From TrEMBL:
PROSITE patterns reported in the protein's UniProt record: CYTOCHROME_B5_1 (PS00191), CYTOCHROME_B5_2 (PS50255)
Record-linked SMART domains: Cyt-b5
InterPro entries in the record: Cyt_B5-like_heme/steroid-bd, Cyt_B5-like_heme/steroid_sf, Cyt_B5_heme-BS, Cytochrome_b5/Flavoprotein_Rdt
Domain named Cytochrome b5 heme-binding: residues: 45-122
UniProt keyword list: Heme, Iron, Metal-binding
Keyword Signal: no
Gene3D superfamilies assigned: Cytochrome b5-like heme/steroid binding domain
Family: Belongs to the cytochrome b5 family.
Organism: Cyberlindnera jadinii (strain ATCC 18201 / CBS 1600 / BCRC 20928 / JCM 3617 / NBRC 0987 / NRRL Y-1542)
Protein name: Cytochrome b5
Annotated Gene Ontology cellular component terms: cytoplasm
Keyword Heme applies: yes
One MF annotation (Gene Ontology) recorded for this entry: heme binding
């Protein structure tokens, strides 16, 4: 049976993240120099159309669009404080409206800077 703190968490839709998935861990990973864009450096920045975007729609390979920019959020999924299921609702699609609905205050441009793939051309 869920205890009161678990109930409080679930009603706020906040999930318990795996160890090593704190915001600080994410900050470390993004500054590690690892290629989080998942594309060749010479291909950056890409022009991404709707068809290409839609192919990157799963947990192993996940792109989304936020305000006209395409991000590879594959490596971020397990760090998402709202849980993987929620963030997967924007997989392979334009996630701008959902993102703004849940947390317009979140500074995704800085958080996902090194996950930027390019611009969305629709
Ligand atoms: C690339 C896309 C996204 C990023 C970078 C992102 C980032 C974040 C961050 C940083 C938080 C913590 C906010 C805080 O504590 O103030 C958060 C929480 C949350 N996010 Fe997202 N998010 C994304 C997409 C989504 C989507 C598509 C949904 C819903 C369909 C969603 C739903 C939530 C929910 C429910 C929470 C928990 C709010 C709470 O109770 O504290 N997020 N997200």
């Amino acid at each position: 049976m869920a205890n009161s703190s678990q109930r409080a968490l679930s009603s706020r839709k906040k999930v318990v993240l795996e160890p090593g998935c704190s915001p600080l861990d994410w900050a470390r990973l993004t500054s590690s120099g690892e290629n989080l864009r998942g594309i060749q450096p010479q291909d950056f920045p890409m022009k991404v159309d709707k068809k290409t975007l839609s192919l990157h729609n799963n947990r192993q390979d996940c792109w989304t669009v936020l305000k006209g920019r395409v991000y590879n959020i594959t490596s971020y999924l397990r760090f998402h404080p709202g849980g993987i299921e929620e963030i997967m609702k924007c997989a392979g699609k334009d996630g701008t409206l959902l993102f703004m609905k849940y947390h317009a205050w979140v500074n995704y441009e800085r958080m996902l800077e090194n996950c930027l793939v390019g611009v969305y051309i629709g």
